[in-house]
Structures are given as structure tokens and as C-alpha cells.
Amino acid sequence: MQRFSDAPMEQVSVNLVDLQGSEKVYFIDEKEIRNLIKKSNPTKKIGDIDIPALEKKISRLPSIDSANVYLNLNGRLNVDIVQRVPVFRLNKNGNDFYVDRKGNEFPVSRIYSHPCMLVTGNVKKEEYIPLAELIDKINQDPFSKKYFIGISKVKKDYNLLTSEGNFKVEIGNLENIEFKVKGFKTFAEKFLVFQDQNKYTKVSVKYDNQIVTTLNPQYEGNDSILTVRKKQLSKIPELAERKQEMIRKKTE
Fold this sequence. Notes:
With 252 residues, this protein is α/β, with parallel strands linked by helices. The chain is 32% helix and 27% strand. A hairpin with a 2-residue loop joins strand 4 and strand 5.
């Protein structure tokens, strides 16, 4: 490229690459990259471009996954850029940022908001990738994608927030996720669709081979059920006392 050393840097090709199967994102545009290139080469001569340094500078932009900077045989500067694609948006300790499927954090943009799952709570960095895998599974299943609109972490337990009713689906930790989501889906399709969605406040699938529901005390139809349950609970001490009395009589 010696013959282009003194040539003016007139032609710059910026290519925002969309990887196959990835969603389109618009965190950065060509104009921003061209301005950065101009500032990095005040003389505007091809020979004065420090390509490795320019590539590092572009790659350090928070929304950039990778950058490849090179000169072609005609002396044109080419910049190929792959942007980060958010899997979820995390609200943690008052801070709001995106996380990609590699577990990389990057800030929200002032010019573009990417539609993705909202997650809240004290999510640890080592949980980012398993959480991204869970969200990928949700997005690939039409039922789950329609049903689940958010995720919250309370203490150590994760909850899936639903688009129907006011209940949450407690999944506990991020292990055996496929089994847990499949269990809830079966429960919803065979039972929940025939119920008023406001009847419950929580459906838990965190325990193996169990689905535990929590009734909504504000739901009028639950009044009689909760009343019976309270009466049953109030009898527990009395029943325990009777059992102890029977044991004493047998031993006398």
C-alpha cells in the first residue's frame, strides 16, 4: 500500500454487519464512525492511518461487539462492524443497562431502544448467560413468548411475569429451566385456561414434579376456599392434641 501513502483519505466504506439469525439493531450509525475516523487521522492521508489503533478505538465503543478495519487493493478504507444485540434489559440497584448473549453489559442508548425482555433484581454476572439462554428459549416458543413479558429476581428466586392475570410464575433457580417452563405450559393449557386468571397470585414450579398455586385473597371467588382452609388450619393444634392423647392411652 506504499503507493497510497500520500493519497487523501476520501473514500471510507462503513459496513454495519448483521449476523445471520441476529436481530437488527441501531445503536450506532455510519456518521458516528466516520467522525471518529476523521478525528483519528487529522492529516486525512491514507499513510497516516494507524489501522490497529483505529480498530481498537472502534471496538471499545460500548455497543460494538467487534470491528475489522482494513485497506482494500484500491486504497479504500473499509470498516466492518458487528453491533451487540441485547437479549435482555436489566434494572439492577437503580441502574438500567443491556446484556447480550455473551454476558456483556452495555449502556442503554439515547437514540435507540431495543425491544427485549425486561429483568429486575439483583442478578449476578455469572447468571447472565443462563438467564440469556432462558430468554432465548422463551422467545423461540410461541406460547411462552406471548405469555411471559418480564422476569424478576426476589432474593434467590426468579419469577416469570405474565401478560394475563396478576400472578407470577416462580421458577426458583436457573437449573432445569426447560423442564420447569414445560411443566407450567402443560398446567396452563390443561387447567389454567379454564380458570379466571386473577384467581391466583403465584404459580410455583420451582420444586421437582410439583406445581403449587397461591390463591389471590382479593379475588371474590376464593373467599369460601380461604375460609375453609383457615378452619382446617385452626383445627391442626386440636387434632395434634387428640393424637397425643390417644398415644398416651395406648401406652398406659
